[in-house]
Amino acid sequence: MDSAELVERCDRLAALASRRLAFPAAKPAALSRARQLHDHLDGFLRPRLADLDAPLLVLLVGPTGAGKSSLLNTIAGARVSEAGVLRPTTREAVLYASENDSRRILESGRLAVVAKNRLRVAASPADNDGVVVIDAPDVDSVERDNRALADVLVESCDLCIFVTTATRYADLVPWEVLRRVRERGLPLVVVLNRVPTDEDDRAAVVADARRLLTADLVVVDEGDLDTGIDGLARDKVRLLLDRIARLAAEAGERRAVAAQALAGALRGLAPLAHAVADDLDHEAIDADALRRIAVTIYGEELATLTSAVQGGLILREEVLRRWNEFVGADQVARFISSGIGRLRAMLLTVLRGKTDAPVTVVETEMRSTLEALAQRHASDAARRTAASWSDRSEGAVVVVANPSLWSASEKFAPAIRDGLESWMRTIVDDVRAHAGRKRAVAVVAALGLNAVGVAVMLTVFIHTAGLTGTEVGIAAGTALLNQKLLEAIFGEGAMAELVGNARSGLARLMTTLFDEDRKRFEALVAPSAALREVAAGLRDAVDGIKQ
User: Fold this and answer.
1) Does domain 54-253 have CATH number 3.40.50.300?
2) Per-residue pLDDT tens for 327-361?
3) Is pLDDT above 80 for 206?
4) Kindly report the CA angle at 21 between 10 and 174, in degrees rounded to 5?
């Protein structure tokens, strides 16, 4: 593969890694792998591909109090990094480089993800051009930001010098860093510090360390210090110092190390990219499951609400009685069996001159009842969804971070209120449109547009299908009354159209409101299609890289 195609594929991988990091609510381990891939591409692969002869970045990394800063002081021959055993001492990364090299490293973008206040530059002589040494924060620091900075630097370096002690070389956290160093194929040197001076103890520790670490090993005995610079005794790390000096002096040596690090990074790229892609596929499955839970529960609560409304909206009896008294329910009931023509004539007689239609009372009662029902079922939907999500690890993280999910959104109450106002206005507008028909003009004029609108609303909610005799109570009786009134005014077909329009309008309103409330949950879960798209893109880009 030519270098141009290799660069293009790494650019694609970097863009995909950035997209992946933008997705919400990934599991910590998955996010860590994605961040690792992103930092590795931006901090090492792309800059190194762009310039194989750029300064070599040598990283001093290790556990708390191992002696990284002391080693940097030894390399510099001066106190450039604060050393100490009471840690975390190194809260920032110390960049030991010539002015020219520090500028080139920073301008190349290799350390672009490192905040400026976390990076301190210590100037080295100009004859050290070509090698930049960084003292990293402790990999096992109690401060999370310190560990994160150390991880970023591991992804950016060309040569890793792992500094540990005779009592710490087998600790778990540092070994995680060593595992990543090996995955990257990084050139590695291990400095084993504070080795006991007893001959037998020393031999046992060194032998065990060589068995475990399988790397170039530099051994520093307990007490081998240069107190004048807070460093290690130079003669004990002479081989390491000579190697760094040789790298600074010989461009060919630097290029060989850079090429070795680049080759190792390319070999390790596919497993990491595939692991991130696998994470994305698993997250897509989890996201689909969470969405299905939300859709199912909100759908169930909406169906329950719809059933409650269609089964008979229970308004207070005194409100219904006031309405029935206004339209002359007793007289209407007597004329229902006499035919629509006689009923229409009776309505004109009964309603002419009436001005006390309880429109506001009925509308207010209807609005408040609907609001309360909708709010209750939306809150139940939210609570049930949050509880179901909490039973799944990937959903529990989202719910814990967003406690407002346990109830309907704050926007729901004003939205249902505004929606019902609009719905009622639409019904009146629809009545007005039908009122121009010849047979309807007189009765609508006598009853009033708003009053006829109320009759339509009541018919939407209360049904008499299958009810006869004593089963027809006040609510069902009102339904029968309004149905016959509307038939008398508009005719059966127009009445059915008016009521159907009102019913479907209310259904759309409730569906929209419940969908919007449900979307709060879905917005906190990454879109499955996008997750799968990025996963496929990662695999395609990395599988085409031939080392």
Assistant:
1) yes
2) 665 555 555 555 555 555 555 555 555 556 688 88
3) yes
4) 85
CA distances from 218 to 95, 222, 227, 403, 422 (A): 22, 13, 20, 53, 80
Could you tell me the two tokens for 371?
């609001």
Using only C-alpha atoms, the chain has a radius of gyration, in whole angstroms, of 38
Q: Which amino acid is at 142?
A: V
- Residue 317, pLDDT > 80, answer no
Phi, psi of 225 (to 5 degrees): -130, 155
Residue 59, H or E segment: strand 56-61
Residue ranges of the domains in the chain?
54-253, 287-528
Residue 225: its H or E element: strand 225-226
Peptide bond before 414: cis, by omega within 30 degrees of 0?
no
pLDDT over 60 (residue 290): yes
Instruction: Give the model's confidence band at 132: pLDDT under 50 very low, under 70 low, under 90 confident, else very high.
Output: very high
Residue 219, SS3? Answer: strand
3-state secondary structure of 233: coil
Q: Give the global pTM.
A: 0.77
Q: What is d(CA 443, CA 457) in angstroms, rounded to the nearest whole number?
A: 18
Single-letter amino acid code for the residue at 278: D
Q: Is the dihedral of CA 239, 245, 247, 250 positive or negative?
A: negative
**Who contacts 457 (Cβ-Cβ below 8 Å, separation ≥6)?**
362, 363, 366, 424, 427, 502
Distance CA 236, CA 227 (A): 14
